[in-house]
Design goal:
The complex is a heterotrimer of chains A (275), B (270) and C (275). Chain A has 275 residues and is mostly helical. In chain A, 67% of the residues lie in helices and 3% in strands. Among the domains of chain A are: 113 residues, no CATH class; 76 residues, no CATH class. Chain A has 10 helices and 2 strands; from the N terminus they run ααααββαααααα. In chain A, a hairpin with a 2-residue loop joins strand 1 and strand 2. In chain A, helix 2 packs antiparallel against helix 5 and helix 6 runs antiparallel to helix 7. The relative contact order of chain A is 0.12. Chain B is an alpha/beta fold. The longest helix of chain B has 16 residues. With 275 residues, chain C is of the alpha/beta class. Among the domains of chain C are: 132 residues, Rossmann fold, CATH 3.40.50.300; 33 residues, no CATH class. In chain C, a hairpin with a 2-residue loop joins strand 9 and strand 10. In chain C, helix 3 packs parallel to helix 5. The chains are: A mainly alpha (275), B alpha/beta (270), C alpha/beta (275). At the A-B interface, helix 7 and helix 9 of A face helix 3, helix 4, helix 5 and helix 6 of B.
């Protein structure tokens, strides 16, 4: 307190920031700047889509997803998570093309009234490779870059702190909402709300659960806003950051190289120089 | 540094009646002022007004004058006032920023927003953590702490802004006994260290232990004000919807039964 | 026949592996007034959620009126055991007080005059008569809590469970809760309250159950539970016996858990010949 002992004289303990803050990741790949990793992911995804055939995307997946994944030591989780998310889309895209490819002529086998064609299979595999490439690239980024680290990097580069806050806070909101909904459901079930009955009953059960979730969240947002404002949140301009992920000249150069390479690839494809 | 409220009234936006009327209040350096009153008597409103949140953040109409060291604060923006008067609320979780992965970053949040130099932020944060004896929690995830611990983190976050005054609105209302003990202890230590605190509470026993003066609100007006012992022993307390401290109640019942209160006083003081 | 019974009740939360209940055996007879105390994490909430089926035992058994609870759905149990949650804002969804209070009885299949009278009685008990058309969020926080109580009262269950009914209440609110409990008990219904207000517990309940780390450590009337011999056990759970009990002990007056008991004991000591 101003003019009082114990607080206005800074402890001057000579202590620094706790070591776990902005903890650098376990591997060199983790420690790359988030923008670099984001560039790698984007380049991988774009290249996989733009390159024709099957070999191209496969090579891109190998170089841009599997190799970094192995370097970062997250290969198994990467494959599992990417497959988990990509699978529904990949499976349906695969099946649709296998059986319903318009230029399919060479019949492979029949299942009732529908026919699988060789051309369809080839196309389906190409689509599959691209979906896996994109899914893999995004998952790799997600697994090696904590959202907070990414947002801090953006803020360091000039994104408004308030925008950065919103990005961070949105990610956190989902688990809190889920927990809130669970509690509310329990309270309403205790009042006889039947959550296991007929469809009609379940539809009628929506308002008693969704209502408090929304109303309660709104009420909490009000108090949250007051607390944030009282802590200087609305002060215009930049704020001090305690830490930020490192960046280097080498990485910056690498990002430019990747960017130029991808742009060149797209240009070559579009102008027909390279099929 | 003194905060002075003179003839202050406040009406929430869209409300028919004022929530506060004719409030006269001084909060000087090193004082602890307790505020008691029935629910909806205006305790929270008073906190919001002293901290400047009413009317800046939530709108509404304010009357009267509020001065800090004689200077009127009518046109101070919220972030300037926030640096002078810190406010804590009863819900432990809604005060967390939700974007801090560690208690350290949570406590540093305020000073970071103010653009203070990094080294000073680090010093202030450690000082605040130590004042509340939660240095050991520095690297923990604030969202996983108990309610009482979260309240202490919130208080540390306020202290890191080096406010001249702390306003605490029912800090122990939602806490279990362990949490209440944690927070009560922290308030006592801060008060003993010379902090200026305005604290509202239903738990008048807590106010009896820490407050120098107590104000009782009734329907937005000041009904009682004075030294703690006097106000909390006032016979009008029950009529105003305020729970008497345990000892006061015992004294009253013993008095009504025509008993000698001395043995009880001695046992209570023991 | 006991109204409620738990036999060797164990509950382990699957996601966290926490053993919240470690073998609890209890019998609560019809019409009893029981308070359950203990710090957060002691298992109090977990225990009462077994009474209406929101939680099912990992092992052990819960019986309501002799029927095994696992044979009944939550909606069915809600007709026998009404549970009022701690936070009214995680339950209130209707636009009017009447709508909110009607919800419970209607879920139980009641209609027309039966519902109207149940609502009327519940509003009378909680002092909310005249607010039928008020929006719940126009009531203060304290009265919203009473609304939550009313909405479960209207279900006319044989058992009423209140989770922290006095938290955040002012003196009048606490009085109101106390009056509700008296009224319900007078009707012969069983009342169970979780509370950490020791004075409220000592004055309003005939039986106090102390829990710690998933077990029952003390179980008896206030005179026994707040007797000096039990203090060490209480302090281990961060609970302080009421001031009256502490003073009574220091004055050698035996166990005086309530203000009234202390005053009576003092009176008797001063006038022994009138004993």
């Amino acid at each position: 307190m101003a003019g009082r002992s114990g607080l206005s004289e800074a402890a001057g303990s000579g202590r620094g920031i706790p070591s776990s803050l902005g903890a650098p990741g376990p591997t060199a790949y983790h420690r790359l700047n988030p923008l670099t990793k984001a560039t790698i992911a984007t380049a991988t995804a774009v290249a996989a889509v733009v390159l024709g055939g099957l070999i191209g995307p496969a090579v891109v997946v190998g170089l841009g997803v599997l190799l970094p994944g192995a370097l970062a030591g997250v290969l198994i989780r990467l494959v599992r998570t990417a497959l988990l998310f990509a699978l529904p889309l990949a499976a349906s895209a695969f099946l649709v093309n296998l059986f319903f490819f318009p230029e399919g002529r060479t019949v492979l086998f029949e299942v009732g009234p529908i026919t699988a064609t060789a051309e369809g299979l080839a196309f389906a595999l190409e689509i599959l490779a691209r979906i896996l490439a994109i899914g893999g690239a995004v998952t790799l980024f997600y697994l090696t870059t904590p959202p907070a680290t990414f947002v801090v990097d953006l803020e360091r580069r000039g994104v408004s702190p308030r925008l950065a806050f919103v990005a961070n806070a949105s990610v956190q909101t989902v688990p809190a909402l889920v927990e809130r909904a669970a509690q509310i459901t329990a309270a309403q079930r205790a009042r006889g709300l039947d959550t296991e009955g007929s469809i009609r009953k379940r539809v009628r059960g929506i308002l008693p659960i969704v209502g408090p979730v929304i109303l309660g969240s709104i009420a909490e947002v009000e108090e949250r806003t007051m607390a944030l404002e009282a802590r200087g949140f609305t002060r215009p301009g930049r704020r001090t950051l305690l830490w930020a992920p490192a960046d280097s000249g080498a990485e910056r150069a690498a990002r430019w190289v990747l960017l130029i390479a991808v742009v060149a690839l797209v240009a070559a494809r579009l102008t027909g120089v390279w099929a | 540094m003194t905060v002075r409220l003179h003839g202050v009234g406040y009406r929430y936006a869209g409300a028919e009646r004022p929530a506060l009327l004719d409030v006269e209040l001084d909060l000087g350096d090193g004082e602890v002022v307790g505020v008691a009153g029935a629910s909806e008597a205006g305790k929270t409103t008073l906190c919001l007004v002293v901290a400047g949140i009413a009317p800046r953040t939530i709108g509404g109409r304010i009357r009267g004058t509020i001065t800090i060291d004689g200077e009127r604060v009518d046109d101070w923006p919220m972030h300037r006032l926030g640096g002078r008067v810190g406010i804590g609320f009863q819900n432990p979780t809604s005060q967390l920023s939700q974007v801090a992965g560690t208690v350290f970053e949570e406590v540093a949040f305020g000073p970071m927003n103010l653009g203070i130099a990094r080294d000073e932020i680090v010093d202030r944060t450690w000082a605040a953590l130590e004042a509340l004896r939660i240095g050991a929690l520095a690297e923990r995830d604030p969202r996983r702490l108990s309610g009482g611990q979260q309240q202490l983190v919130a208080m540390a976050g306020l202290l890191a802004m080096r406010p001249a005054h702390l306003v605490l609105d029912e800090p122990t209302a939602q806490l279990d006994p362990a949490g209440t003990q944690l927070v009560a202890g922290a308030i006592e230590r801060l008060a003993a260290g010379g902090a200026s605190i305005l604290v509202t509470e239903q738990k008048t026993d807590l106010l009896a232990a820490v407050a120098d003066r107590v104000v009782v609100l009734d329907a937005g007006r000041m009904a009682l004000a004075g030294p703690t012992a006097d106000v909390l022993a006032d016979e009008r307390l029950r009529g105003l919807g305020v729970t008497e401290p345990a000892l006061v109640r015992l004294r009253r019942l013993a008095g009504e039964a025509g008993l000698d209160r001395a043995p009880m006083e001695r046992a209570a003081g023991a | 026949m006991p109204e409620l019974e738990a036999v060797d009740l164990v509950h382990v939360y699957r996601e966290s592996g926490v053993r919240a209940l470690d073998g609890v055996s209890l019998r609560i007879e019809a019409g009893e007034r029981v308070a359950i105390v203990g710090q957060n994490g002691s298992g109090k909430t977990t225990l009462v959620r077994h009474l209406n089926g929101l939680l099912r035992p990992t092992s052990g058994r819960v019986a309501i009126d002799g029927i095994d609870a696992s044979a009944l759905t939550v909606a069915q149990l809600a007709a026998r055991v009404g549970l009022v949650f701690q936070d009214p804002d995680r339950q209130i969804f209707a636009g009017t007080v009447r709508g909110e209070v009607e919800f419970g009885p209607r879920n139980l299949g009641r209609r027309g005059g039966e519902v109207r009278s149940a609502v009327q009685r519940a509003l009378e008990a909680t002092g909310l008569v005249g607010e039928e058309r008020t929006n719940p969020y126009d009531l203060g926080q304290s009265r919203r809590k009473l609304l939550a109580v009313a909405s479960v009262l209207a279900m006319d269950t044989g058992v009423l469970v209140l989770d922290e009914p006095t938290t955040g209440q002012d003196a009048r609110g606490v009085e109101r809760i106390r009056a509700v409990i008296e009224r319900v008990a007078a009707e012969g219904r069983t009342v169970i309250a979780i509370s950490h207000d020791m004075r409220f517990v000592a004055e309003g309940f005939r039986r106090v159950i102390v829990m710690r780390e998933g077990r029952v450590t003390l179980d008896g009337p206030p005179t026994e539970v707040f007797d000096a011999d039990a203090w060490e056990g209480l302090r281990a759970t961060y609970l302080e016996p009421p001031l009256a009990a502490r003073i009574g002990h220091r004055l050698g007056l035996g166990s005086t858990p309530t203000d009234g008991a202390l005053v009576d004991a003092l009176r008797r000591r001063n006038a022994p010949e009138r004993a």
